[in-house]
Write a structure and sequence with these properties.
Elements (H helix, E strand, L loop, with lengths): L7 H13 L2 H8 L3 H15 L4 E4 L2 E4 L1 H24 L7 E7 L1 H18 L3 E7 L13 E6 L6 E7 L2 E5 L2 H6 L12 E5 L5 H8 L9 E5 L2 H9 L5 E4 H10 L11 E2 L2 E7 L6 H15 L8
Parallel strand pairs: 3-4, 3-5, 8-9
Antiparallel strand pairs: 1-2, 5-12, 6-12, 7-10, 7-11
Helix pairs in contact: 1-2, 1-3, 1-4, 2-3, 5-9
Length: 302
């Protein structure tokens, strides 16, 4: 007789969310995003044609039918876990690596390089979430956290892996239309700002000894990666972090009109919970980041 089985990934998300009473905690346990858990639960609800949770602002509550359903399937997941440990071949069991990093760093540096790590570790499922929240607020939900530093946090080990400075960058086409020979030529250009980094241009002007310079226009974005994309698209000139625009400079998508001055910037560091500092996979990922940090810029053919 044909078995009637719901989507197993959706069932797994429901079991974790129901057992923990939280989509957020289920996401942390499964090393996926909150949205992924929510999507899988909705998929199961559509398959069952019945709601499973009552949503109340920031919390969820199982419906009576879902509570009874969870009571029956929960032990099955535990039995499956025990059987896998008891009889499974260690080399056949995939590992999950949960990484949390800032969005701009993830988009412009980590993602273009991540295939190299995955090619060397095909049995590892990497889960990346973006955030700028403080390290100490992550509650051990991640194996590796990338933030600026070096800083010291109780319960975490820290290792720097990528240094950078900041300098003006723009598209080659923009520089051709309105040449930039000296910093004073910035008066004829639109300067790109990021609302969370309001001091970048004023600090650079002070270091370039043109503190009173007034540009032709100003364009401000709420995310740094939008500011950098606007520079690539020729909308103006941005203060580019050298580590995150190195590939664009090498590929000719951006140019740096001035050799200096350069603003110092914090390094990128890995922060790992003490209880995971001896984990072999975590150590391999940290070492891989450090090797990537020393690689020359790519021309786009990663």
């Amino acid at each position: 007789m044909k078995r009637t089985l719901p989507p197993l990934n959706a069932l797994r998300a429901f079991e974790a969310a129901g057992r923990l009473g939280s989509f957020k905690d289920a996401a942390a346990e499964l090393h996926v995003t909150h949205g992924a858990v929510s999507q899988q639960v909705r998929l199961l609800e559509e398959w069952l044609r019945a709601p499973l949770f009552e949503r109340h602002n920031r919390r969820v509550v199982l419906t009576p039918a879902a509570r009874a359903y969870l009571a029956e399937i929960g032990p099955l997941f535990e039995q499956l876990s025990q059987a896998t440990v008891r009889y499974g071949f260690p080399e056949a069991v995939s590992r999950r690596l949960a990484v949390n990093a800032p969005a701009t760093f993830t988009l412009r540096w980590l993602v273009p390089r991540l295939d190299r790590f995955r090619a060397a570790h095909p049995d590892v499922d990497v889960s990346v979430e973006t955030s700028n929240e403080p390290v100490e607020s992550q509650s051990g939900a991640y194996d590796v956290i990338v933030r600026g530093g070096p800083d010291t946090f109780y319960g975490y080990s820290m290792r720097p892996f990528l240094s950078e400075e900041r300098l003006p960058v723009c598209s080659p086409a923009l520089m051709q239309r309105v040449p930039l020979r000296t910093p004073d030529d910035l008066r004829r250009h639109t300067l790109l700002h990021t609302s969370s980094l309001p001091r970048l241009w004023p600090d650079w002007f002070a270091k370039a000894r043109i503190p009173a310079l007034q540009p032709a226009a100003v364009l401000t974005f709420d995310h740094f990666y939008l500011t950098l994309q606007a520079a690539i698209d020729g909308a103006g000139i941005a203060m580019g972090p050298t580590a995150l625009v190195a590939d664009d400079l090498a590929a000719g998508r951006l140019v740096a009109p001035f050799a200096g001055p350069r603003l110092p910037s914090r390094s990128y560091c890995t922060y790992v919970p003490d209880e995971k500092s001896d984990d072999e996979l975590v150590a391999q990922f940290r070492s891989w980041l450090e090797r990537e940090g020393m690689r020359p810029p790519s021309n786009g053919a990663v």
